[in-house]
Amino acid sequence: MPAREAALQMLYALDLDGGRQSAREVEHWYQQAHPLPPAVAARARALVAAVEAQRSEIERRIEKHAIGWRLERMSVVDRCVLKLATAEILLAPEAPRAAIQAAMKLAQKFSQPEAVAFIQGLLEAIARELASQTEAAPHAG
């Protein structure tokens, strides 16, 4: 969880910064303020990179399932938790439960109580959609 928390905080800083700094610059700042063990720093960096690399796909999926909500209307924390977990689900669509559970813990710690169910429902919808797409895809044989 320390890597996910660090990644969440870096994504939060990137979101608030509005693109003026790179993920690398934010990570450097974060490491100065909150030194992390090398393995935790590497995992956090990989998570942030996954979000950055698939940003448009992640945002499209979140907005598709967030009926009545645009990303800009969500709290920064909720938006970042959703992006982080969606990136993890995209990386391992066959096993979304760990990403969803971790996202719920992050939401419980950093967001409002009512946000937890919203985040859980949205991530479960994204995971279901990915699972149905994976099942529908032809298998190489």
Describe what you observe in this structure.
With 141 residues, the protein is mostly helical. It contains seven helices and no strands. It is globular, with a radius of gyration of 15 Å. The model has no long low-confidence stretch (mean pLDDT 93).
- Count of helical stretches: 7
Rough outline: globular
Percent of residues in helices = over 70%
Distance between the termini: 38 Å
Topology, pairings included?
Blueprint: H1 2-17, H2 23-33, H3 38-53, H4 55-65, H5 76-91, H6 97-110, H7 113-136
Helix pairs in contact: 1-2, 1-3, 1-5, 2-3, 3-5, 4-5, 5-6, 5-7, 6-7
In short:
With 141 residues, the chain is mainly α. The protein has helices spanning 2-17, 23-33, 38-53, 55-65, 76-91, 97-110, 113-136.
Key traits:
141 residues, mainly alpha
